[in-house]
Queue: 2 jobs
Job 1
Amino acid sequence: MQLDFVILGMLAMRRFSGYDLRKWMEGPLKYIGYGVQLPQIYRRLAKLVGRGWVEYDIDTREGGPDAKLYRMTEAGRRALWEWARSPFQPSLRPADPDFAIRFIFGGQLDPDIALRVVRTELEYRQKDVHHTATPQWLAKASQHETNTSEMDPKWAAEVHMIGHEHGYAGASTYIAWLQLVEQRLLYRRRQLRGTRSADEPHLDTEPDATVGSAAP
C-alpha cells in the first residue's frame, strides 16, 4: 500500500506523531494530489508496528494527552529501500500521485533511484503524447451529421480540437519538466563522482545498473 511507504519515507527523515503526519499531508503533500484522513494514518501505523517496521516512544506533554512519536526500525528501513529499488510502473493518468510518491520518498534515498524513476516516467509520457494534428477520430467525427440540428459539426469538431490541444499542452509541459529534472539529476551524479574516493565504485551511465550503489 502506497501509504505505508509514504509513512516510512517521512519517518526516514525524523520521528512523527500520527497527527503531525496528517498535518504534513495537508500541507506540502497536498500539491502532489495525495491526501488521507487521520484514521487511515493511525490504522496503517498500527499495522506497521505489528509488522515490525515501525516503533514508537511516548512523548509526555504537560497540559495535554501524551503522544506517540513513531520511528522506523531496521526492518522498516530495509522495506523502504526494497520498495524504492523495485520497478516503477507509471500510471495511465499523469494526474495520479504515483510518480511523485515514488520520486520523493524513493528518490530521497539515492540520486540514482530518483533518476531511474524520472527516466521511466519520461519514456512512458513521450510515447503516450500525441501531436497537435487533427486526431483520426476527430477528423472522422467532423464528416458526419450531428443528432442536434442546431449544432454545426465543423464547429463542434473545432471545439473538440481545442480541448485536445489543451491536453497536449499540459502533457508537453510535463515532459519538458521531466527533461529538466533528468538533466539536474545527471549534474548531481557528476558532482557525486567528483566527491567519491578512488576505491569507491563510480556511477555507471545507465541508472538501472547503479540502483542501490549507495547501499543503505
Job 2
Amino acid sequence: MRLAVFDLDNTLLAGDSDYLWGCYLAEQGIVDAQLHARENERFYREYQAGTLDIHEYAAFVLRTLVEHELPKMEALRARFIRERIEPIVAAGTRELLARHRAAGDLLIITTATNRFIVEPIAALLDVDHLIATDPEIVAGRYTGRIAGIPNFQGGKVARLRHWIDSQQRPCRHMSCYSDSHNDIPLLEMAQHAVAVDPDPVLRAVAQQRGWEVISLRRA
C-alpha cells in the first residue's frame, strides 16, 4: 500500500476552513460578531504558535452545533462550501491529487479541523479517506466535546497509525504534505515529506532536513 497524506487548511486550501467557518457564522448572525471574531483570532494565533488547547478550541467551535438545529447548520455549511471554500482550493491542488491517483497511491486528508466542517470539503476534492477531529455525538446530538483522540499534532500520528493498522496491509511508501510546523511529527513518518507554502518554522526545518518545499498557490 502506497499512501499520499495531505493536511487540508493552508495546504490543499489557500486558507483555513475552520477560521473561515467562524467568520461566516458571524456574517450570518449566528454568533456575536465582535466576540466571536476576537476569540477566533486568539485561537488562530495560538494555533500558529503551536500553543492551541484543542479541547478549549473545540468547545468554542462546536457550541453552534449544540445550540442550533442540525438541518439549519447543514444548510449553512452547504452555502459556506460554495461561497467560501470552492474559491480557495489552491491552484495546484487538483493536479497534485490527480498525479498521486495516477501513481496508484491511496489518498488521505488528515486535519485538525472537525469532521462537520471538512467532510464535504473532502468530497469536493474527491478524496475518500478522511481523518479529522471527531465531535462527540450522544443520542443524535452534538455535545460540544471531542470524541476520542483529537487529530492534532501528535494525535495526527496516532490516528494515522491506527488507520494504517486497520487496513491490515503494510504501508510500503508514504508521501506527506503540510504547511504547518504543528505537523512536523506527521511529516517525520513519511519517506517523502513535502512542505507546502510552509510557515517560517516548517520552512527552516524542511531546509535543514532536505525536505521538498513547494507551492500549490501558483498554477
